[in-house]
Structures are given as structure tokens and as C-alpha cells.
Amino acid sequence: MPLHTAKRCAMIKLMAQDTIAALATPPGNGALAVLRVSGSTARAVVEACTGGRRLEPRRATLLRVRDAAGHTLDTAVATLFAAPASFTGEDVVELSCHGGMLVCARVLERLLNCGARPAEPGEFSRRAFENGKMDLTQAEAIMDVIAAGSDWALRAAQDQLGGALSARVRAALDSLLDVAAQLVAYIDFPEEDIEPATAEALLAQLRELRADLGALLATATEGRILRGGIATAIIGAPNVGKSSLLNLLAGYERAIVSPRAGTTRDTVEERVLLGGLCLRLTDTAGLHESADALEREGMERSRRAGAAADLIIEVADSSQPRPAPLPAFAGVPRLLLLNKCDLPTHPDWAGSEGLRFSCRTGAGREELAAAVRGLFLHRGESADTLVAVNARHRYALQQALEELSRAEESLRAGEPPELTDVFLRGALDALGSITGQVDTEDVLDRVFSTFCLGK
Ligand code: GDP
């Protein structure tokens, strides 16, 4: 290594405890890969391993990344985003190089030798959060965008990234602070009792706040379903077309379709997209009486899958006599598909409420999609923004609602305002933890540890 370069690297290393680097694209072979460097010496680190080529902010620069001996490791395009106008709020350099496993590893190694250190998973986003570029719900939404498995999940994630949830939480925090501020006046002047009219107004404000937070909490089911998919059990008698339905929705022959009854003895699972939602379909063994021990075990699993499902799609063969009713699964929404509608309908099904469907022709698919959307997206579809909270937000909202109820009780009972204030502070803390305004190290660690490397 030429001496001046070695010295320069050593100097940068000393200054660059806080400059991080990582591959931002998945490891593997592809046309391009992006490496990201962030920190006060990001620019110097990249310049050091590219022979001192000056980087101009927001200008793509074609350059060579060289090893310590000066050999070219790769030709890359570097873009500098100078602080604070960058993703992390620090100086960031993005290096687009060729997308090979080895070339990326060598370029990263070179960046590390020139003074950066390897980033922890989620560290870029954590820095963005800590530098005020986004709040915690927006940071979480980045991972939701990446993990989105359906169009509606993507829309909800983008809305959250755009600040839709933050805005709702901020409005609630403002209202809560307003109530707390009014109470403080009485804490400062203990000789004055809270006027009944004032107490009534505060109670009304708290009730309204609770209704808003309750509505937000009610989006948790939608949130779970959008993030994890709708656990859907396909049930029905043997030979009605359950496996055919799974194959039709999956778009390929996932399950064995056979005219022989009892072919599906175990449960078969598949993720499919229907109407912009993700369904985790389970094709179960046919539900009927059977002496075969293996089939009986299969049916037992069907019952378990049905009981644990978010949605049951019951398939019936409309060309055949109506079979005995299938078991009820309390509390699980159920859609009845009258399959094989390409064949003449058996009179038993006249006037039946089910959805006419054919796995053979695909008839009824749109109607099925609309029915599923109707069951699971009733709030989201018409709204301008789709807010659907995650499990962490749900927990915080429950805490906030409990504290608000206590605050209301305390105010109604005429307890000292200091006591009511304690409950209001509890609610403020719980709400603040959603956006990260009130943050604790363990919450941040938990959130950012779920991120992938380079994010
Ligand atoms: P399962 O036992 O309920 O999973 O039923 P399968 O999917 O294995 O289908 C049983 C038989 O019905 C197979 O021969 C399929 O080709 C046939 N089948 C399935 N759906 C339809 C349909 O919509 N129309 C017609 N005509 N036949 C179908």
C-alpha cells in the first residue's frame, strides 16, 4: 500500500468510530448491488478506497474501488448524500457495484479497512430515527414495506411510512397534553377545587380521546391480517374440489387433484394473493365419517385448522345432493362456495346462499375476492389512508386506554388532581412509546433487531 494511503486510512479509522458500512441489497448474484456507508467520515472512507476521487453531493460519480495494492476491485457508481439531507441524517454514500458475492465482499472489506465498521442489523434506520428523520412507526413501516406480501399490506405500510399513524398518535398526544395542562393549574393552586363545569369538559375530552384510541386499537386485527396473511382453512366433503381451489388460487398444481375421495389426507399449505390480500390457504382432508385411521387423523387436523383459522372457505359440490352439514367453527367467518357450477345444479342447492363457483372455469373468482375483502378490509378500502396497527402499537394502545379509564374515574370521583395527573402521565408515556417520543432502550433494541442487515 502506498504510504500516504496507509496513513490516510489509519487517520480516518481513528476518526471514524461512528461510520458504518453494509451491503444494502441481498447477498447473491445479480446485475448490481448497493453498499451503504453512513457517518461523519463516510465521504472520506469512500474517497480513500477510490484513489481520492472527490464526491459531489447528489451527483453520481463513476469510479474505481481499489484494493490496498491499487488493483481495481470494481468499477462502481458512488452517490453522496450530505448531512442532514440523507436517509440517516448523516453523510451517506451509496456505492452501486457489480452484484457478485465475492466482489461485494471485497468492496465491503475495503471500506472497513479504510475506516468504516460493519453496521448492525437496522443500524441505518436507527440512526435515521435518532437523528429525527423519522419516528418509530415510520421506521417500523420500512420493514413492513419490505415484508409486504400483498397489495393492501403494501398500501398500509406506505401509509404508515408517510406518517398516517404518527399523525393519529400525535393528535391524541396533543389532546392529552391539553388535558394535563389544564389539570396542572389546579395542582399549582391546591386551594382551588376543580369547577364541576371544567371537570365535565375534561371528562368529555378524555372520553373523545378514548373513542379515537379505541378506533385505532380496532385496526389491530386488520394489521395482523395484512402483515401475516389471512389464515384460511378450505373445508368440505371429499371430492368437492378443495384441492382444485387451492391449485386455482395458487396458479399451479400444488395439491393432488383426484376423482378418488380421500386423496388429501394431510393438510397442505400455500400463500396466495386474492383481491390484493394474502391468504394462507390450508387445504384440509375432507370432512366425513371414515373408518380409516389415517384419514381420521387427517380430519382431526382439518378441525384444528378450521378452529384456528381467520376464515373458512367451505366448498360444496353443487352438482351433487347436499351432504350433511359440516361442523360449526364458532366465531370464524365462513364463505360457502358452490363449486362445479359449470355442471348442472342439483335441485338440493336451489335457493342456496352460497357463491356460485367453478374451479374448472374460474367463474366466481372475482366475487370470492370481493367477499374476502368485504370481510377483512371494511375500514380500509374506502379510507384515504389505511392505518393498521401492529402488535407493539396494540399493546401500547391498550396501556394508554387503561390509564385513561383510571384518569377518568379519578377525575369523576373528585380525587386530588395530582392522582389524575399520574394516570394521564401513564397514558402519555404509553402513547409516546408508539412513535418513540418516549423511548426506552429495550423498545428500540426490540424494534431495530427485527431489521435486516444494511437497512
Ligand atoms: P377434493 O377432494 O375436495 O380436494 O377435490 P379435488 O380438488 O381433488 O377434485 C375432485 C374432482 O372434482 C376432480 O376430478 C376435479 O377435477 C373435479 N373438479 C373440481 N372442481 C371442479 C369444477 O369446478 N368443475 C368440475 N366439472 N369438476 C371439478
Layout of secondary structure:
Layout: H1 3-15, E1 20-23, E2 30-38, H2 42-48, E3 60-66, E4 72-81, E5 92-99, H3 101-113, E6 117-118, H4 123-130, H5 136-147, H6 151-161, H7 164-188, H8 196-217, H9 220-228, E7 230-235, H10 242-250, E8 268-274, E9 277-283, H11 293-307, E10 311-317, E11 334-339, E12 355-356, H12 365-376, H13 391-412, H14 417-435, H15 441-449
Parallel strand pairs: 1-6, 7-9, 7-10, 10-11, 11-12
Antiparallel strand pairs: 1-2, 2-5, 3-4, 4-5, 8-9
Bound molecules: guanosine-5'-diphosphate.
Approximately how much helix is present in the residues?
A: 40-55%
Give the H and E element order.
HEEHEEEHEHHHHHHEHEEHEEEHHHH
Q: What is the distance, rounded to the nearest whole angstrom, between the alpha carbons of the first and last residues?
A: 32 Å
Number of domains: 3
The neighbouring-strand order within the major sheet is 3-4-5-2-1-6
Describe it:
This protein folds into three domains: 17-119, Probable tRNA modification gtpase trme, domain 1 (Gyrase A, domain 2, 2-Layer Sandwich), CATH 3.30.1360.120; 137-219 and 388-440, Four Helix Bundle (Hemerythrin (Met), subunit A), CATH 1.20.120; 229-376, P-loop containing nucleotide triphosphate hydrolases (Rossmann fold, 3-Layer(aba) Sandwich), CATH 3.40.50. The two termini are 32 Å apart. It is an alpha/beta fold and 455 residues long. The protein has helices at 3-15, 42-48, 101-113, 123-130, 136-147, 151-161, 164-188, 196-217, 220-228, 242-250, 293-307, 365-376, 391-412, 417-435, 441-449; strands at 20-23, 30-38, 60-66, 72-81, 92-99, 117-118, 230-235, 268-274, 277-283, 311-317, 334-339, 355-356. The strands form two sheets. The chain has a six-stranded mixed sheet. The protein has a six-stranded mixed sheet with strand order 8-9-7-10-11-12, sandwiched between helices. It contains 15 helices and twelve strands. The longest helix has 25 residues, at 164-188. The structure holds guanosine-5'-diphosphate (GDP). The site of guanosine-5'-diphosphate has 21 residues, from helix 10.
